[in-house]
Amino acid sequence: MRGVRNPRLFVTLQGFAAGLGRSVLTPLSFTLLRQLSDGHFHSGEDLAEKVGLTRARVSQLLRQAETAGLSLERVRGLGYRLKAAPDFLDANAVRSMLVDFGAKVAKPGTPAPKPQAPVEEDLALNGNDRPVIDPTPPALQVEVSDQMDSTSSELLRRAPRRDIHGAVLAAEWQTSGRGRHGRAWSAIAGGSITFSIGWRFEQGAGFLAGLSLAAGVAVARALEKEGFDGVELKWPNDLVFRHHKLGGILIEVNGDALGPSTVVIGVGVNVRMPREVRREIPQPVTDLQAVAGRGARPIDRNRVLARLISEVSSMLAAYAEHGFAPIAAEWQQRHAYQGKPVKLVLPDGGAVKGTVAGVDASGALVLADGPRRSRFLSGELSLRRA
């Protein structure tokens, strides 16, 4: 099974700008946007000179930025400015905040070690013939990119060449993010947080079945610490606020059935979503700005990203030691559909109805239909009238 993603663990998040036909932002686009991020007007001539392009090319790139969800203002004689200048992600700021949160962070430019294939006879074993897991989290290697195809895909590409244990990639814009059932995933530049983190486990697929749920708990904890109260979880991988989708979790696993495994965990959270984008999405969605409410202080995306990375990495270290069982009760307390009548659409197109009784120690959903209890490993969950 090495090199094959376990379908039971291929849990994906669906982005809020999926399939909307929006322009793809390029590195040149971000060079221009960073020039405009101060909120002041800049003439086309000045922008063209600073980035080494023609005025016509500058105008074209800015039009593409508008179709990607950013709002520009044009004034004759003054030039261009962003109406709502995004706080672009900054790797140094994220690293500094991670240290403040107590995380161990590798210095920029520290070379990642090459991957080492574990040899069974070299693994330390305890009295139960199980590998002894080192609970010490690795030094996090944090990178931020303006644009890439997918943070998770990039980490998976790196895995054969280097050790991605503790490697973190964040991106302002993903051109080929993946969603459930082959749907595309993308985001609004400056209006979302998307990152992936690599982790190594000595255990295999069965042990990792509840990992996406554990990651959801970590994300909810992080948002609470940053003052975003009321965020709940929806089985198996969604973050919701008042039954509107706020974000989600992506888990991809490569490894042997019994271990070891290399896991990439992707996290996406909506921060500021333009109204016109919301109208184009065929499901109720929300963002952190709405969770915070009117009059709340401005959201610092770098701080929120650092808090998310800190909580998720801590959770991964704990999961490696104890699995999902110790946090199953907390997950159930955070489940938006706990004790509610639901319909579960199965991967084969069939559907079952019942009341959510919770999740078991492996993370499987347990539905009750009278005295009968049934467990499910995958499916699309929705509320139904009692």
Keywords, separated by commas or semicolons:
single chain; 386 residues; alpha+beta; BirA Bifunctional Protein, domain 2; Arc Repressor Mutant, subunit A; SH3 type barrels; 3 domains; five-stranded antiparallel β-sheet
Structural class: alpha+beta
> What is the β-strand count?
16
At CATH level 3, the topology of the largest domain is BirA Bifunctional Protein, domain 2
The top level CATH class name of the largest domain: Alpha Beta
Mean pLDDT: 84
Shape: globular
From N to C, what is the helix and strand string? HHHEEHEHEEEEHEEEEHHHHEEEEE
Strand line-up of the largest beta sheet: 3-4-7-11-10-9-8
Question: What is the helix tally?
Answer: 10
Helix fraction by DSSP (H/I, runs of at least 4): 25-40%
The first-to-last residue Cα distance is: 43 Å
Low-confidence stretches: 1-21, 118-131
Radius of gyration over all CA atoms, rounded: 22 Å
Number of domains: 3
Strand content: 15-25%
Q: Sketch the major β-sheet.
A: 7 strands, mixed
The CATH architecture designation of the largest domain is 2-Layer Sandwich
Could you name the CATH homologous superfamily of the largest domain? Bira Bifunctional Protein, Domain 2
